From TrEMBL:
Transmembrane portions of the chain: none
Name the record gives this protein: Transposase
Organism: Epibacterium ulvae
Highest taxon in the source lineage: Bacteria
GO terms (BP aspect): DNA transposition
Length: 79
């Protein structure tokens, strides 16, 4: 059984930007970069959906870890 190929974020961004340019078809990009056209479409949509976040001012990212929950879990581990 083969393992899925992992693509780096830089590679995904490059392919998605090329798709947005529209100079080549998705099929041409897929053969050039060695990925499936459906992946290019999903990366392109992800880029478009997340692009507005680049221009937000003063937006504070929500921390990925809830500190209160971490303290509770540490207390349980200590019991």
């Amino acid at each position: 059984m083969s393992k899925r190929k992992q693509h780096h974020p830089e590679c995904k961004a490059k392919v998605a930007l090329e798709a947005l340019k529209g100079e080549e078809t998705v099929s041409e990009l897929a053969s050039r970069f060695g990925v499936r056209p459906t992946m290019i479409h999903s990366w392109k949509h992800a880029l478009l959906d997340g692009a507005s976040g680049v221009f937000e001012r003063g937006a504070v990212k929500k921390p990925e870890v809830d500190e209160r929950q971490v303290k509770e879990l540490h207390a349980k581990i200590g019991e």
